[in-house]
Write a structure and sequence with these properties.
259 residues, 2 domains, 8 strands, OB fold (Dihydrolipoamide Acetyltransferase, E2P), 5 helices
């Protein structure tokens, strides 16, 4: 007798989408994708009220709940496989990250993953932070970052940082080379490729670079973005050339037919 399964063998329940990363018991692995915003967090009617770093209130709304300093940044949560906001008020985590930034062997946390191990509960909760070996960020994470754009500054206004109505977005940082710009020769080569793609495509590239990364000139293009822009432009250039050759062949055929 054949057994009919109720569910497929490889079935897995879909994960609920969550825009905020929360530390779970055990290991929490993530990659930081933006500079943090720094501020102060108070509470009113069970809702957070946030202030910028230089605008700390003189006293909390509720005297029993002290105002807390916080960092908020965009991260890639490996467990959830999502772009999320990590909101940190734990001083031990902030101090550990700050120590890594000042360590010449680690540096700014844009080119390596972070693992935080959470143990205990309530007042006995402890966090141990460990950096993982340096490695490039997978390209699909950058694509997902650009799909789920975020404005961290919206947190100060209690607005939705991921709202599709946002017109300003927090720029991403995907490697330690973010401050290293392409050479004049690379900019020239890219300009020549874009010129072969047609005016519409070239204008679209410059519009996208300015909107997403505030880049107005090719010389301001970071090394980390150069290859992606170049590969896409070369693909468009080859497709444009193929269409032009097909059009030329068709024109020549029609001329020959008319003779």
């Amino acid at each position: 007798m054949t057994k009919i399964q109720f569910l497929p063998t490889d079935y897995q329940a879909p994960k609920a989408s969550n825009f905020y990363m929360k530390f779970q018991e055990g290991e929490n692995k993530f990659r930081i994708l933006s500079q943090p915003i720094l501020g102060w967090e108070d509470w009113q009617d069970k809702k957070p009220v946030r202030f910028r770093f230089d605008e700390k209130p003189a006293r909390p709304i509720d005297p029993k709940k002290p105002i807390k300093h916080f960092w908020a940044m965009i991260v890639w949560n490996y467990l959830a496989e999502e772009i999320q906001i990590l909101h940190i008020t734990q001083s031990s985590i902030r101090k550990s990250l700050q120590t890594l930034c000042m360590d010449k062997d680690w540096g700014e946390p844009y080119s390596y993953d972070i693992k935080i191990v959470k143990t205990g509960k309530d007042l006995e909760t402890e966090y141990v932070l460990n950096p993982l070996p340096h490695k490039p960020l997978p390209s699909h994470v950058i694509d997902l970052f650009n799909e789920r754009r975020c404005n961290l500054e919206a947190l100060f206004d209690n607005e939705d940082p991921f709202s599709k109505e946002n017109t300003v977005f927090t720029p991403g940082i995907f490697s330690a080379n973010v401050d290293k710009k392409i050479s004049m020769e690379q900019a020239y080569d890219l300009e020549m490729i874009l010129a072969e793609c047609g005016t519409r495509y070239r204008d679209w590239v410059f519009h996208s670079l300015e909107k997403q990364y505030s880049i107005k000139e090719l010389l301001d293009l970071p090394i980390e973005l150069y290859q992606r822009v170049k590969d896409a432009a070369e693909k468009t250039m080859n497709e444009t050339h193929a269409k032009q050759r097909a059009k030329t062949a068709e024109d020549q055929f029609q001329i020959a037919e008319g003779q």
